[in-house]
Each structure stands twice: as C-alpha cells, then as structure tokens.
Specification:
mainly beta; 5 helices; 7% helix; 45% strand; globular
Length: 697
Amino acid sequence: MDKEGEQVKGQKMGLVLVMACLLTLLVWNAYQTKTIAASGDEKIGAESPQKVGQEAPVEPLPTVGSFENFKKLMAEAESRTRNVVMYSGGDMAAAESRPKASAASSAGNLLNGKLDYSETNVQVQGVDEADTVKTDGKYIYKLTDNQLIIAKAYPVEEMEVVAALQFDGEVHPLEMYVDDQYLTVILNQNYAWRQVYPAPAPPFENSVKVLIYDLADRSNLKQVRELELDGSYLSSRKIGDTLYLVNNKYIPLYRLQEQPEALLTPGYRDSLEGGEIQRIGYEEICYFPGSPQPNYLLIAGIDLGNLSTKKTEVKTYLGAGENIYSSLENLYVAVPEYKYEQVQPLPEPADTAGSNTSAMSRMIAVMPAEVNTSVYKFNLQAGDTKYLGMGSVPGNILNQFSMDEHNGYFRIATTLQKLPVRTGEAELTNNLHILDQSMKQAGKIENIAPGEKIYSVRFMGDRGYMVTFKTVDPLFVLDLKDPNHPAVLGELKIPGYSNYLHPYDENHIIGFGKEAIEVEDPHWSGEGTVKNAYYLGMKVALFDVSDVNNPQEKFKVEIGDRGTESELFWSHKALLFDREKGILSFPVTVCDIDPATVNKDDYLAQKDPRLAYGQPVFQGAFVYDLSAEEGFTLKGMITHHPPGAVVNLQNTGRYDYNRDISRSLYIGDTLYTLSNSYLQANDLNTMEEQGKLEIYN
C-alpha cells in the first residue's frame, strides 16, 4: 500500500483529462453502490437550538410502506443518477467498485487470573473491534484462509494446537471476537456460484454469517448460535456482551424493470428462530427523506449475554455506509455524497464528422461539483439501535480515525478536493467540524494546510492531531476544548508523513509513516522547476506536544530504504503497544538499497540514489522499548523465515508468504508473534526464543 507523496502542481492537459476521467468513473461506480445524499435541512451551517445535554426531539423516519412506494423512491433515486462515460475514441469502459476495508487504538492490559495479556489495538477503550488474531490470556485464536486455529499458548512449554476448524468453500472467515465464554466468528457467505444452478435457489446473493461457539471445551467446539444477515460486511463492534454488525446491500435497479417479482427485500435468519429466512417488510424499512438511493443499510444487534432467549434485533434503512465509528453509547455511519455538474458532450472531431460515432461515446466525464460526507447517528440500546439524526460536512474523511465523540459532541476531519477538468489544478483544503448532539454544527476550523491532504488524524480528549502532506509533514495540534470555537494551537513541519497516530500519554503521540525528501523537477510547462516529494523508508517518531504551541519531534527511528512497508500503514490492529511495559512491536518488510544492483537507467535514482527501490532483506516484527525520556531502543527483530529466505525474494520464486508475521501480542512476560504458518514465543525482556509451534501447513 504505497503512498508516494508526490504532488505535482500542474499537469499536461491531455494527462489531466485522462486521469480525471478515470477517477470520475471510479467515483461513479462507488456512488452507484455506496453513496447517499444528505437531507437538505440537515446541512452544516444550520444553527442548533439545542445545547448538549438537552436531547432534541427526533422525528421518526418514514417507512417505505409498500412495493409501490418503493418503486417511486427508486425512480427518484434513478433520476439522480447519470451515465458518466469516458471519452476514448468511441470506446466505452467500465470499472468495478470494490468494498473499502474499513479500517483503532489503545492496547490495554486486562487481569485474567494470574496473567495480564494484550488486547486488539482499538480506537475507543471499551469498544472492541474484530481481528484475525485474538487471545484470552491462555489460548491464541488465529484465522488463516478458511481455517480457525486454536492454540494453547501458555505456559510456553505446553504450546500445542488444540483445535483446527475447517470452513467449507462457500464461506470465508473475515474476523472474530473472543470473550470468557464465547468465540464469535464473522464470515462472508458467497452464493454467486449457485446462480448458475438455481435449484435450489440461494436465499441471498451475498450474506454475512455470524457463528458463535461455546468455549467450555476448546478441543471440541460447540456451535450454540448462528445468524446470517443479507448483504456485504462493512464492519462491527462489540460493547460488553453486545455485538453490532453493519452490512450494506446494493439494490440492482435494472431488475425493477426486468424482473420486479424477483427483487426481494433484504432478510436474515437466526438459529434461535428456527433458522428460517425472515424477510424484512417494506413497512419495517425506513428511509431518509430527500435522499433515496439504491442501497440498504442493515444494523444487527446480538446479545451474547442472552443467547438462548433474546432474538437478533435488525434495523433496515434505504442507505449505505463506508466507515463507522462507535463510542460506548452511539454508532456513527459515514458515507460520501457526490453531486455532479451537468455532463457536456465534446465537440465532434472533424475527422469523425458524418461517421457513426455516437454522441454518448463522446461524452466527457465531469468531476463532482460537490463532495460531502453524510453521517448517520444511532443510539445503541442493548442490541437495538435508535436513529438520532443526520449531519453533513464538506469533503471526504480518510478513515474511522477521522471521527470521534467527546462529551456529547461529534468531531470529524475532512479533505475537500476540487479538480476542474479544464484547468487540472487540484484545489485541496482540510477542515475540522464539530457537531452537537442533534448533529448540527457547533464549531469548525476551515482551510487547514491548503494544497495538502490529510494523511492521519487522532482525537485525544480536548485535543486533536492532524497530519497533512504535500512535500513536508505538518503535524497540527488542535484545541477542541470549546466545541463552539476550536482552533489550531501549533504546527510542526518536518520531512515525511505519518499514516497512523497513536497516543503515548497526554503530552506525547507516536507517528508511523515514511520518511521523504524533496527533489527539484522541471515544471511541465518547460519553464522553471517545481518541488516534489518522494517517500523513502519507514519512519517512527515520538512527538512532544506538552507545549501545544510548539510541538516537537523528540525522537525518531528510520527503518530500511524505499520500498519498506508495514501492515500497520493500513491496519492499526497490527500494532502492539504497552507504555507501562515499554513495548512497541509491529510487522515490517525491510528493503535495503544495494548500490551495486541499482538500475543505472532508473530516472529517480539518477536524481538521488536514495530514490532507488531497495531489495527485500527482512520480514518480521521489530520490537522496541519506548520511553518519553530515552526514546526508541531496539530490543529485537523476530522473523519466521529461515536465514537468507527474504533476500531477493522477488527473484527466487520460492518465497513463503505464509511465514510473514502479521501480529504480535503478549501474555505475561512472553511475546508471541504470529504468521499463517507459525506461532513463536520469545521472552519479552531478553527476546530469547522460548518455543515455536507450526499452526498451519
């Protein structure tokens, strides 16, 4: 997941047109499957008559009611759409949109009998997030391909695989939760292959299954509950004994004209109710006035504390989601909202006059005139959800860390981008909006780092931290104590950028990203030069923000050269951090530059030797001792690969990716690292290897 960080101020018009068209087509596909429009009376800028603590009355959402009304709403949704076609000499192209992985922090210690152990790195303390690896302080649970592995991990001398559960080919495990009593596995169920053989007809096109197992006997797991929910998995959260599952389901409008009788409402089935499919009637499906669209948003709540008696609560809306944020009390679902200018045809080329080239094949894709983010707020009530309102802010969010709730207020950071096709000059601005309990604007900061875009955000109580990037990495410290008057307190400009920010303590924050250098490039016009930034190796920095007006990069370490990557760049769950134990661990693939093998014709390497791509030399976990007084001290580098296996992996053809470490955790004073193939134990203090267990072959 490379983030080049190369920003070009001007582009040749031909290239700009092609790139703009490509981007618009991708955006349009995402719009068709995900986007929703915000209600006009909920726009940012409306004054809020309510104060936080005084809950505003919420108008109940209208329901679809009937199939006839559903058709009217979908006709309105279709009228909002347009066929955006790329101009390519008469050819028309299409691209598929893929679901965006949603992508939390503060690993903590829990006392479980005699030992403490690490938990999944989550965004909000007390709000658990699913992952592919979990531990309960004695056993480690690992999802690999279509298999669930349960290994006894402690004590080390008794490490063994106690169960290996194989799922069938129709399902693919995604993530899981573990508590004292239950193991909950979330799987994707794909019925697409059955469409060719419709007898018996599949109940859904795609669905998400939740399988719940009793952990009384881990060597012989007993399934005690099963839920199947229509649609595609967006995300989930677990608060106490309650699991909340959020799905999207696209409505194929073409079927409304071709086979209206085959257009079924979404549904679910719950083993507690006999396992029969429960279709959700139109009288139960709500919609947001003024913003119909061909998508369903489904939110299911499962009470794990009452598995044998309490049914699943399922709420369905005409809507969609792309990212979610959850506090202990409320769930926020965010989705981009795109509004387009009128598409105009290109003038007919002289050499095609009189030909059969259609006007449609000469349509030019126009970038969105406006991009907003709509946010839906739901109160969480022991498995049930209650709609509380909707807000809309200009721009797009980066990920779940762009959102936060504090003292009843909702904070959200966005990047607003405009890219006029005819000028090619990207206009970027970054904003911070604070919404009150009714999702109306309380305060805002606009025009932060114009010309740059957000690379990471972290909210910590009354402060916020934002990293933007173009050629340098500004770290902004935001004062959010007064929600009605937020302000930028301080700014630090350094080379490189941070993809992920993690709290160290109230006066320090850790940044994970890449180092970068500036290079003078010729301007595309042929006159003068322009500064561009190019990323190098991985950088981990500790920022001191005790002086909020003058933040400082107190310590930093650089790992590898250009090409070095870490799963932490796109998944916060790959981080293990415990301040009290002084441990910081994360997976990394290290690339080093060998001057003897650098391609002499490499354009970037000719500019600066550091811009050559390095060759892989290591994959594993880097383990540091981190303190605010002494900075980073490398404790060890753990790998599951045999010596020399990683070097020049791209050329050997024998590289075993199943040995790549993806997670690390601790139980007591033992550090465990996990790849698909192995579970390895090392002493947390000395880094001495204590044992190794093959968990997958």
